[in-house]
Amino acid sequence: MNFRALCVLFYIIFYLIITFPERLRLKKLEQTDPKKAYQISQKHVQKAFRRFLKICGVKVEAEGLLNIPEGACLYVGNHSSYFDILVLGSVVPGGTGFVAKDSLAHIPGLSNWMRRIRCLFLDRKDIRKGMKTILQGADYLKEGYSMCIYPEGTRSTTGQLGEFKGGSLKMAQKADVPIVPVAMTGTRDIFENNKGLRISPSNVKVTFGVPFKISELPKEEKKFAAKRTKQLIENMLETQHQIL
After folding, report:
1. Which of 24, 119, 148, 201 is 20 to 30 A away from residue 138, measured at CA?
2. Which residues neighbour 147 within 8 Å (Cβ) at sequence distance 6 or greater?
3. What is the pLDDT of residues 96-109, one digit of tens each?
4. Beta-bridge mates of residue 203
5. Distance CA 230, CA 76 (A)
6. 86-90 — which CB contacts under 8 Å span 24+ positions?
7. What is the DSSP letter of 107?
8. How far apart are CA 58 and CA 69, in angstroms?
9. 31-80: pLDDT as tens digits
């Protein structure tokens, strides 16, 4: 474990301890004014994400921010690092909730903050529970909360896009909100590409593509929305690599 990794570990522990009273306050506020509690929570989380990335020496360049529509949308991105959530969460205006693996629901403090910003915990082994999670995500979108999902279901170890799970875009279709393709490069260099528990500085590129609604696609293309989204992200990743 190198010095940056030790600093990150200390920051996480310190942050979860010092914010305990604030989490209790927001829990009470959510019962009377959920929108305000959400907005305050997102500000806290985005600030924490940015500090976290600064400690890691990560510089984030975001392109296509003007493509982000007003109102709720579903961000759909490639997934290759634990840091993808932190990077995307730090640059999305107003923040977003994430569909994350269910094991994160059992981490004290962290899971509380995740729930505050409308994150959902997906059980990949139980189809019934998984569909219930997707329907909850659709409800959040209808209520005006943006969400983010990584359709590959797990992190890619090669940098290549994996198969997009069939039901990954269902929440956007049911809520009839725009899908925003997102491409990220450079996140694996922060941790996964290092030996041992080491964190290294990295330049990360995030590109937001042109949004589209499944309901506005030609009839024959609607059932191939996941394939369309994957192709859009692949094209953006290819452009990023060419620039690098």
Report:
1. 24
2. 72, 74, 75, 96, 97, 98, 99, 118, 120, 137, 140, 141, 171
3. 999 998 888 889 89
4. 59
5. 9
6. 86/49, 86/52, 86/53, 87/49, 87/53, 87/58, 87/60, 87/184, 87/187, 87/204, 87/206, 88/148, 88/182, 88/184, 88/206, 89/45, 89/46, 89/49, 90/46, 90/49, 90/50, 90/53, 90/60
7. S
8. 27
9. 999 999 999 999 999 999 999 999 999 999 999 999 999 999 999 999 99
Structure tokens at 75: 């961000």
Question: What six digits make up the tokens of 230?
Answer: 């994957």
Please state, in angstroms and rounded to a whole number, the distance separating the CA atoms of residues 112 and 20. 10
* Residue 152 · residue 80 · CB < 8 Å: no
For tokens 């996941």, name the residue. Answer: 226
- Compute φ and ψ for 73, nearest 5 degrees: -150, 165
pTM equals 0.94
